[in-house]
Predict the structure.
Amino acid sequence: MSIIQHDGKFLMPQLAYGANDLSPVISGETFEYHYGKHLQAYVNNLNAALHGSGFENSTLEDIVRQSSGGIFNNAGQVLNHTLYFQQFKAPKEDNAPMGKIAAAIDSTFGSFDKFKAEFEAKGVSLFGSGWVWLSADANGKLVITQEVNAGNPVTANLRPLLTFDVWEHAYYIDYRNARAGHLKALWSIIDWKVIEERFNS
Ligand code: MN
């Protein structure tokens, strides 16, 4: 099942929080630009490219798997940002996963702290624009991968669970060039219930 239903026209993803609720990790100003301008442009561009493309009845994931060029770039960014924005909630100290996803992280990476360190390092070392991902493979095994530009793990038959956006537009207003500091701060706003639902689906 696709994370976004559409009828030949994609809509902005619905969010369970307001523009200022992620502050100070993601400020209201960054949210207004990132969600309100960058993501809105990707949605508009995808809808414009969809008409006459042959992908009108495809799921968003299938468009990402099967397309190339401009339609791939915009579909990938709509999928990536939908997964990104829907995984957040208001900041909480000592925020951590629970249940099956916590157990899977511990057994795969050694501990939650080791997982966070590896995930942040993959985000910091990604050159240029892209995304770092936690995904599950066909056997449910967890894996961390990097994708450049609009890439998404669904093209490698992985199921995306969690993602950090390392395009500069995600952090430049609040953190300037300090990508590492931004990535470290993101852990306090991850809604692990959402990640667990993706893992169990
Ligand atoms: Mn972005």
